Amino acid sequence: MGTFTAKAKAENRSVTFMERSGASLAAGGLGAILGNPCDLALIRMQSDGLRPAAERKNYTSVINALARITKSEGVPALWNGCLPTVVRAMALNFGQLAFYSESKAQLAKFGVFEGYKGQEAMRNLGASAVAGFFASFFSLPFDFVKTRLQKQTKGTDGKLPYRGTIHCAMKVAKEEGLLRFYRGFGT
Fold it and tell me: How confident is the model at residue 168 (pLDDT cuts 50, 70, 90)?
């Protein structure tokens, strides 16, 4: 955003929604690539308690989970589910950062809350509400698929239930319906 802000200032204009969107998408994607191993460990640790006692891994910490996953599945396994994690983070950041900045700019442009004590705080709150809605709306389907992929375990036939992101999304849509992706949206 610093680069886009400086460029816009030099050109005597405001930062565009497209520039805000690009910055938020890039930040989300890069952050997700770097953070995927810890996200994977978190998902594995959370789902471990749902398994029958005999099948639990009983991870003691994130470091323990990362080490054991690396040892049993290899280093590349730390990036299992990376594509949906990246897409989810990009969708979340797009909804959150781009819409927050844009909402705040539009509220100021149209003088919303003008003349009220604490107008800046009220604009921040309004922009946060808009951003929260869009962050959830855009990211929830990807979050759902990402979690399903990271939680999956091989069945008795030795195969995983999903071959990848698209297969998971299509199978869920067909078997459980499109609204399944938005279960919990109100929360």
Answer: very high
- Give the separation between CA 161 and CA 115, rounded to whole angstroms: 58
> pLDDT above 90 covers what percent of the chain?
67
Task: State the alpha helices, DSSP H only, in 79-178.
Answer: 82-93, 99-109, 119-151, 165-176
Handedness of CA 83, 80, 137, 133 (dihedral sign): negative
Sequence-distant contacts of 128-135: CB under 8 A, at least 24 apart: 128/100, 130/99, 130/100, 130/103, 131/95, 131/96, 131/97, 131/99, 131/100, 131/103, 132/96, 133/95, 134/94, 134/95, 134/96, 134/99, 135/92, 135/93, 135/95, 135/96, 135/99
The answer to whether the beta carbons of residues 37 and 74 sit under 8 Å apart is: no
Q: Which long-range contacts (CB under 8 A, 24 or more apart) does 143-147 make?
A: 143/88, 143/92, 144/172, 144/180, 144/181, 144/183, 145/84, 145/88, 145/169, 145/172, 145/181, 146/81, 146/84, 146/85, 146/87, 146/88, 147/43
